């Protein structure tokens, strides 16, 4: 969370910074995973696959894309959600 906030503050300083203060913690749900991780060693050793980006470069590019495509973000947020 903090990394994303720091990237937004860095890449969009016109927003005023301080996005970490927007983080709100909620009570954890029973059985909710506290950590998500991917171990790509098997796919690397068996298939020779290696990721094109590190997590750090990938998340930076993702944050940059969202900041540069705010019209798309707003259009998605404006669409009504379906209920099942």
Can you describe what's shown?
With 84 residues, the chain is an all-alpha fold. The chain has one domain (2-25, 32-66). The chain has helices spanning 2-11, 41-47, 55-68, 70-78. The model has no long low-confidence stretch (mean pLDDT 88).
Task: Give the helix level as a range of percent.
Answer: 40-55%
The N- and C-terminal alpha carbons lie at a distance of 30 Å
Whole-number tally of structural domains: 1
Average of the residue pLDDT scores? 88
Low-pLDDT residue intervals, each spanning 5 or more residues: none
User: Would you count the extended β strands for me?
Assistant: 0
Estimate the strand proportion.
Answer: under 5%
Structure, briefly:
The chain is mainly alpha-helical. It has one domain (2-25, 32-66). It has helices at residues 2-11, 41-47, 55-68, 70-78.
């Amino acid at each position: 969370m903090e990394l994303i906030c720091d990237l937004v503050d860095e890449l969009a300083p016109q927003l005023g910074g301080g996005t970490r203060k927007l983080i709100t913690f909620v009570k954890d749900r029973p059985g909710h995973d506290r950590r998500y991780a991917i171990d790509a060693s098997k796919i690397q050793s068996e298939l020779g696959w290696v990721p094109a980006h590190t997590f750090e470069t990938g998340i930076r590019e993702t944050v940059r894309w969202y900041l540069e495509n705010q019209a798309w973000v707003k259009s998605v947020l404006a669409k009504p959600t379906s209920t099942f």
